[in-house]
Sequence to fold (309 residues):
Amino acid sequence: MTSNQLTIGSRGSKLALFQANWAKSKLETVHSDLRVVIEIIKTSGDVFLDAPLSQIGGKGLFTKEIEDALLDGRIDLAVHSLKDLPTVLPAGLGLAAVSSREDARDAFLSNEHRALDALPKGAKVGTSSLRRQSQLLRLRQDLEVANLRGNLDTRIRKLDEKQYDAILLACAGLDRLGYQDRIAERLSVQQLCPAVGQGTLGIEIRETDDETRNRLQCLHHAPTHSAVTAERAFLRRLGGGCQVPIAGHAWIEKSRLEMLGVVASTDGRQMFRDQASAPIEQAEALGAQLAERLLASGASEILKALSAS
Fold:
């Protein structure tokens, strides 16, 4: 039986609600008979706000409770920042749509310094990401990297309170919420390789819900899907999540898929990076093969050490 209502599950942060409302607006515009409501669900990542993400441990910190609501039938779809969504989904759930990618780069924010290279020796930089920490220290061993948690507004407030000399955030979230003027520098993909799926939204549903899947095609962007398929295959083969310093970014260039992959030690002293390309239709194989190349070159030792610690 066809229903004229869909319920979106979302975290309660300003950014998460912006993303959920984007999906709601587009669905209601395309499907004029449809009513979409948003249900706010608090996740583990929203509860434990002080500890570094790497210390909380486990995958799905920002998704598990929402996925439970999907499986229980309390909601019909979930709108995630794709970088938060584990590469292996719970049985019965699937990725139905991937949004067009916004700026995937990392942003450097500082009230005193115009660029990362302008930071003085010993400057304190805030980030909750081991991926950012490892690559930042690779570039600047002289910096102090400190834990930074909280929603986007909280992180910017901590910068304004001079708790940090600079902070690193995702450009996409700042752009979505109209904070472009706070970005001092957009760091290139070669400087700081982004997180897998960064800048993209993933729409998750119950695998058997073909009606909702069909309705969600208006949110789907096939070129971005090809890129993130490669990225997620790369991360899946390496077995990593947000608690491991792994970075991967794919893009389409001259009708082929290019991908950069990085695995680094948390102190930045060891780094393995490689780039590969393949036809677009071989996206999953590209990601897996790039992961294999990094593992063979020595990245496996970093990952073993991290899993043992």
Observations:
- The chain has ten helices and 13 strands.
- Residues 221-309 form a domain with the Double Stranded RNA Binding Domain fold (CATH 3.30.160.40).
